[in-house]
Each structure stands twice: as C-alpha cells, then as structure tokens.
Amino acid sequence: MRRRLLALLCVTASLVTGCGAVPGVGGSDRHTVTVWLMKDSASQDFLDRFTADFERDHPDLDLDIRIQEWTGIGEKVQTALGGEGEGEGEGDGGPDVIEVGNTQVPQYVDGNRLLDLTLESVAKWDKDEWLPGLADPGQRRFHQYGIPWYAANRVVIYRKDLFEQAGITAPPRTREEWLTVTEKLNSGGNQGIYLAGQDWYTLSGFIWDEGGDLATEDSGRWEGSLDTPAALRGMTYYQRLQALGAGPADADEEHPPQAGVFAAGKVAQIVAVPGLARAVVKQNPDLEGKLGYFPVPGKAAAKPGAVFIGGSDLVVPRNTGQCEGAVAVVAALAGAEWNTDLARTMNYVPNKAKLASAVAGEEGVAAMAAGAAQGRATPSTPEWAAVEADNPIKTYMTEVLGGADPATEARRASRSITQALTVSAG
Q: Which of 306, 421, 320, 351 minimizes the C-alpha distance to 135?
C-alpha cells in the first residue's frame, strides 16, 4: 500500500513538475538512487544503519550515498540541476536527492529545476508541523520544494561558576531579566557578555521579536526594512546588551573567534551554537563541567526569543530518473524514526517541534530545540546572497554602536539592501 501511494503521489506530482515517466516503477529490476549528503551532516554509523534499513524495506532499490564538501557546493548543485543527464553520477547522470542549506533552496528553485513536493508534504509528511525556519525557505508561492531535515541555532552558553558567584540561581527567561543579570555579571573584571558588534544573526532575532524584518516583499519587489520602528527597537536592545561587555564594535563573532575569547576566562556569556562549547573546553580544560546553556530569552517568559535557524533541507532534482525512489528516500530521512535518530546521533534539532523530546537529555541541544521553535531564516529570495556578499547590516551595526544616529544609518543600510536585491534580481 505504501509503495502504491508513493507511486501515485509521484505520478500526480509529475503532472505539475514534468517529472515524466519513472523508470523502474512497477518493474522487478533493481535501481540505484544517488544521494548527495554534506560532509559531517551524518556519521558513517548512521548512514550504514539507514542504508541497510532502507534497502531492506525497498528491495528493488540500492542507495549510493556520496559525501560532498560545503566548499564549492553551490556551483556543483547548479550544474547537477542544469538539465537531463548533467552533473556527476551514474545511470541517470546525477544525484536524485541532494542535501542543501535551508537558506540555499530559493536559489535552486528558479528555473523549475526542483521537483514540487507539495502533495507529498501535505498528504504524508505533516508539513504544518515543520519548523518554520526550515520549511519557509523551501517554499515558493505556496509550493514546497525543500523538505526540512535538521536544524541548528544559537543559544546562550554561560559560565555556571560565574553565575553562582554573582548570586544568580537560574538563567533569565525574559529579555529584561537577561539585561539585569548581564549587568550584574559585568563587574569585578568580568564581561557580562561577549557580543561582537557585527553579530547580525543575533540582531536579527531581536528585530524579529519586535515584529520587524531585514527585508520585506511587496508584489514581488524586495526592500530593506531596517528603518522600521520595530527593527529599530531590535537594534536598541542589541546596543544595551552589547554594552555589557567588551565585544569589538567593528568585527563579527569570528574576528577574533569568540570561542577563544570565552576560553580565556573573564567572560560570563556568549551567543553561539552549543557545539562551540567543545572548542572552548579544548582550549581551556578547566572549564569542563562549568558551562551551561539556555535559549535566547524572549520578550515574555512564555516563549524563547526568535533566533536565526540554520540547517539543511532535502531536495529532489526535477531531472531525476528515479522519482519514486528519490521521494522514498526523502520520506525516510525526514520521517520521525530516522529524523530523531539523526538528532540524537549528531546533536541536532529534529525537523518538528513535537520531536524535540528526542534530544531532551542533552542540555545544550535541549536549549537549542526550545529556541528552534521560534526560529526564522533570512528573506526567502535567491538574491539575498548578494546582500551578504557585502553585508550592509554589519556596517550599520558598527556605525550605531560607534555613536551614529540609528534612524539615519538604518535608512542608509535599508537602501543598500534594496539596491542589492534589485540589481541581483535584474
């Protein structure tokens, strides 16, 4: 029954996407489904277990999982999507399933080069339950092309010993509490928080919490929106928090790497993905067991703050020769069983909030999962990459933290964002 339903869905989708005749459907021959996954997204043990289980459940299919490097992957994927028989691969000439960054999906949707998986998403995969930060970038005009796989996002990593010394017995749950706690920690030679001046990912969360955005769309035209009252309130909060430490106003979190700054001591908190704690402890083994995690606080205690969410989606090239097999692979990888297995294995956030209990036993990942429910992504337009190439948001932040008028600098940055989106689109 399951195979017949998948076949029906795939054939129905072909009426919309032009997937075409599906070799092997209904036949007895074995066929190979080629899957591109990114390096370090999944352990070899996970891949071995998944492959054995999948091939046992699908006796007419073999999996060929090929690990790709993130460096240069954009051009490689573009080539693979270019046309029938193009790209690397065997048999059908290229990959049948590709893992891509969640914010990369919009650039691959253009040109009708991805299989439209809306029908499957609604009928079988409970798309309304997916984390919006993964699902939204994979959607274009209410059609779903990218299927959420796993997520990762920033949390607050803190020094438990410094909190205890300051008499702080529990992590803050609201943004105002966070300011109060951080101000208390910012004394005695310690930085309350190390927050680099150009950490625009963290700023984005504050802007979203206020109801603003980095850019907005109207009738297909994108415009920068850092100058809205809501976005300016987000920047004001960032100023207040960043001032409770010695983060440089003219650099981002990688210059210098904040893990090294945190490891050197005298810093009570940083905003980062939980995995960064391993690098901190490696540089300063004395911090073993002294680090804790909590979600970035929101405006009210009822829910954490909004955060930028990263992670991966799975896509199927429209030129695949193994449509049914590709859909079956996506269904399995993104389904509850293997999605929670991956989350536990790799310390990721599952693709649905209701699956977060799978990582509840890991403090850092549990904090990440709580924040992921409020996760957002960058504006869903393929032109956004042009904004990040010469990021005016970073310049805006440095100018404001240096004393410039926020409204004036926000208007200037918004114009730059609009220009980048318009020129790139043209």
A: 351
